[in-house]
Amino acid sequence: MPTQPLIYWFRQDLRLTDSAALSAAAQTGREIIPCYILDDKSPGQWRMGNASRWWLRHSLAALSEGIAALGGNLVIRKGETEKELHALAHKHNARAVYCSRCYEPWAAELENKLRKSLGTENVELLSFPGDLLFEPEQVTTRSGTPFQVFTPFWKYCLSLPAPQKPPPQKKPLKFARIRENTKNALKNLDPPTKPERMSQWRTLWQPGEEGAQNHLLRFLERGITDYTEGRDHPARDCVSRLSPHLRFGEISPRKLFHTLLNQRNNRPELKEHTDKFLSQLGWREFSRHLLCRFPHLPEKPFKKSFEKFPWRENSGLFEAWKRGQTGYPVVDAGMRELWETGYMHNRVRMITASFLTKHLLIPWQSGEKWFWDTLVDADLANNAFGWQWVAGCGADAAPYFRIFNPALQGGKFDEDGAYVRRRIPEIAALEDKYLSEPLSAPAGALKAAGIEPGATYPAPVVDHRKARTAALAAYDAVKSRP
Ligand code: FAD
User: Fold this and answer.
1) What is the structure's pLDDT at 171?
2) How far apart are the first and last CA of the chain?
3) What's 308's DSSP letter?
4) How far is CA 356 from CA 102, 346, 375, 450, in A?
5) Which of 229, 280, 291, 373 to probe ligand 1 with, by most ligand atoms within 8 A of CB?
6) Which of 85, 135, 151, 327 is 20 to 30 Å apart from 288, CA to CA?
7) What is the C-alpha separation between 355 and 317, in angstroms, rounded?
8) Which residue's CA is minimally distant from atom 42 of ligand 1?
9) Distance (Å) from CA 243 to ligand 1 centroid
10) Ligand 1 center to 333 CA (angstroms)
């Protein structure tokens, strides 16, 4: 009977089921010391933002309850991963650290460093496939280069053997009984003062494995039946909102993939919708594979010509955008949704990002950082990829000259104004037809709705037509470059 315990290092896999790494750890028959380390140094400028920290805190609480129910204690540390893992291994005389692979450049680098440094103390680091469907090394073009266009990428992925189903856990998880004050450690993760806007978040979100499962079931009952069309309408309940659960590994993409394949088999009338959802998982996969191959994606434009793009810094306009005070209702509703809930619907992410980079000509990296701090699902690959895609400088990106008209987008995707009314009460009384462009309403209609342009709700911070012309002129400066 093996006596030395092993350490299970939780990273972006905060769950107790459906985990290749945890199954392998259980398989050894050894006692497991489960730990999580909040390391703000190794990620550099990409350390977790505030909204993600809120999620993490609650997700760890759920995980530690699950571990306690199995007789163990989750060890939570704040500090440098290398130092903390060495100390834990030393204290408990552990000879192995098990973990799931992470694909962010800094995380991959950390893993390599740890493998060497733990090795010098005869502690083995074993990592297992992480939160991808296909490992990046598996997916290359015939000439061995990375795919840079989504459609062939996803087609190739789907031609590979399907990702393996979650491995059955043959042996039970045997957590070590160690003395550890997890409650205090969790409290330590709380910010000194809790931001007011987060006080209601527990009513919106249920971080943890059970919350992920509940969200998935709800989506399979409702959203999936109209996903293809409905996913573009932010007021409809058609998207899964699984992104923060995926980000923290409370559910795996493999599990989602197989669940959706089952749905497709059992409910063939939903094929169109299940395929669309699977292709969204494909975009997630694509962004991660790209980040592995192009580690500068979060900082530098994928298309080199954009390095010379004449962006403009403007703190006043940036502030108006962040606070949802641009005078364009769909943009403002999106930015307020983000601030109030830690989430923003995908269609609105595209509209708000387009507005920042094209109407205001503010660098995409500024918007990326704001999203990073305020999204509960902030994800290095998806966020960088999404911003570059919208700004026109990314892989397989939307062409720069495709400039959304925010008023038309509002009218098209929020046709009855339900989304805007929910977030901007000060214009809620306006008739539907004026809601996406309040200043187009006659003075009488504005008065009747209690709106005083510039006082109760801002006039547009830029004129759409002029902004469009300026954006196209700026684009001329880079489009002839390679
Ligand atoms: P669903 O429609 O239910 O999709 C299911 C899952 O598929 C999502 O949870 C996500 O993992 C994946 N997915 C869906 N759309 C995309 C996409 N366009 N690109 C990559 N993966 C996708 N997603 C993040 O998870 N974190 C981010 O930080 C992030 N930042 C973004 C920034 C911008 C500017 C843009 C345009 C998009 C960003 N996205 C990001 C992608 C997308 O908006 C979200 O994944 C999606 O809105 C999450 O909501 P959902 O889970 O309800 O999506």
Assistant:
1) 82
2) 63
3) G
4) 31, 15, 17, 29
5) 280
6) 85
7) 11
8) 346
9) 6
10) 18
Does residue 371 line the site of ligand 1, with CB under 6 A? yes
Q: How close is the Cα of 382 to the center of ligand 1, in Å?
A: 7
Q: Is 35 helix (H, G, I), strand (E, B) or coil?
A: strand
Copy the structure tokens of residue 38: 């909040």
Q: Does residue 1 carry a pLDDT above 60?
A: no
320 in ligand 1 pocket by Cβ < 6 Å?
Answer: no
Instruction: Write down the pLDDT at residue 482.
Output: 53
pLDDT digits 0-9 by tens, 142-173: 999 999 999 999 999 999 999 987 667 778 89
CA distance 60 to 48: 14
Give the Å distance between the CA of 379 and the centre of ligand 1. 9
The encoded tokens of residue 31 equal 């006692």
Beta bridge partners of 175: 32
Which tens digit of pLDDT belongs to each residue from 318-376?
999 999 999 999 999 999 999 999 999 999 999 999 999 999 999 999 999 999 999 99
Instruction: Determine whether the shortest distance from the Cβ of 240 to ligand 1 is under 6 A.
Output: yes
Q: What angle do CA 92, 95, 96 make, to 5 degrees?
A: 110
Q: How many CB atoms lie within 10 A of CB 2?
A: 10
**Which of 100, 265, 75, 217 has its CA nearest to residue 167?**
100
| Ligand 1 close to Cβ of residue 239 (< 6 A) | yes
Place of tokens 């932010």: 234
Q: How many CB atoms lie within 10 A of CB 128?
A: 17
Exposed e or buried b for every residue in 96-108, given b needs 16+ CB within 10 A? bbbbbbbbbbbbb
Task: Tell me which residue of 369, 341, 365 sits closest to 234, measured CA to CA.
Answer: 341
β-bridge partners, 75: 35
Mean per-residue pLDDT of the chain: 95
Cβ density class 60-89: b for 16+ within 10 Å, e for less: bbbbbebbeeeebbbbbbeeebbebbbebb
